[in-house]
Design brief:
Helix content is 10%, strand content 45%. By secondary structure, the chain is mostly beta strands.
Length: 353
């Protein structure tokens, strides 16, 4: 037993340690190349996401951010050239449309009268001026917020001599060119919701206006100063707040413009179409996996799905994103981000923000 402890076990330990050291040196400095190593070969394939044309419902409600503002004051303009004779209503008073605010004394000079006296000598007589009074009326109902004339002051026809602030309010918002395409017909009213305000209400007299090239905010011309006449492409939507709805200037609002709906119609995602206003192009997937460009006629859109009037059949597979679109980002679960914040899922065709 003493021999084993003294000689055998120490020698075995030395042999084991030596074998480990040799193995480590070989692995670190003399590793064999892996058999059959070659260039990396991809084993997967890249396929474009697809969707199918399905029957659905399109509710074309255009939603805008809006602001409540008091209607613009209506100018009081002088109706004659002369001097202010009498002021009937003072600044700050409430007026009705047609109330007489002041009048103007107008002196009209007469032509000289030529005559002959008893001796046959010609004479010229200057008649006295004809005095008339031009009345200036309130152009609208409201508060006479400004009156800048004084008794005896000289005025000319068309001079702005005051302002009447109406007690009415409007809601306005900006409509992008893409949203204008969605309004196939001119709407006349909209639904307005004010956060923390009254219940949603209908505002009427809806108008959509676009600034003309060269027009400034004051409407006097001059444009942008670069000669382009650019207005940014946006139009202004404005509608009247009902008189029985209490609002204040500066409130933020959501304007919803109903622009039609269509039930049981063929629909596809807007990302699958080049175009989008009345006509467009889609890429149909054929049985052999290739694609074919097809012209389609389009109807209503809600901004995420669009109605196909003709050019496709129900169940036809098409590319979910057109080749001309920005490359979508796969976010997993069969869903893709089109780069604008919209997430489209190929199994349902649903797009969420």
């Amino acid at each position: 037993m003493g021999v084993w402890r003294k000689w055998v076990f120490p020698i075995l330990r030395l042999v084991v340690f030596a074998a480990i050291a040799v193995a480590l040196v070989k692995v670190a400095f003399f590793a064999d190349p892996a058999a059959g190593d070659g260039p990396a070969v991809p084993t997967g394939s890249i396929t474009d996401p697809q969707v199918t044309a399905v029957i659905g419902t399109i509710v074309n409600d255009v939603t805008l951010d809006g602001t409540v503002s008091a209607d613009a004051a209506v100018p009081v303009r002088s109706t004659g050239a002369g001097t202010v004779d009498e002021i009937f209503i003072q600044q700050g008073a409430t007026v009705a449309a047609g109330d007489k605010i002041y009048d103007i004394k107008v002196e009209t000079v007469q032509d000289p009268v030529e005559s002959t006296d008893a001796m046959g000598n010609p004479t010229v007589t200057q008649p006295k001026p004809v005095i008339t009074y031009a009345k200036v009326f309130a152009p609208a109902a409201g508060v006479l917020s400004s009156l800048t004339v004084l008794h005896g002051q000289a005025v000319n026809i068309g001079d702005t001599t005051g302002q009447v602030a109406p007690p009415t309010f409007s809601v306005s918002g900006s409509l992008s060119p893409q949203q204008q395409y969605r309004l196939l017909d001119q709407p006349t009213e909209a639904s307005v919701t004010i956060a923390g305000g009254p219940a949603p209400f209908t505002c009427t007299g809806l108008s959509i206006t676009s600034p003309l090239a060269g027009q400034t905010d004051s409407g006097t011309g001059g444009g942008t100063g670069d000669g382009s006449g650019s207005t940014g492409g946006s139009a202004t939507v404005r509608c009247a707040v009902p008189g029985d709805v209490k609002v204040f200037s500066g409130l933020t609002a959501t304007i919803t413009i109903p622009a039609g709906s269509a039930e049981n119609v063929l629909t596809i995602p807007t990302t699958a179409v080049d175009g989008g206003a009345q006509t467009g192009v889609v890429y149909a997937v054929l049985e052999d996996g290739s694609t074919e460009q097809r012209d389609v006629t389009l109807g209503l859109t809600d901004g995420t799905m669009v109605q196909v009037v003709s050019g496709l059949d129900e169940g036809q597979a098409i590319l979910q994103f057109t080749p001309n679109a920005n490359a979508p980002i796969d976010v997993g679960g069969g869903c893709f981000d089109d780069g604008s914040g919209n997430i489209t899922c190929s199994d349902t065709g649903v797009i969420a923000k």
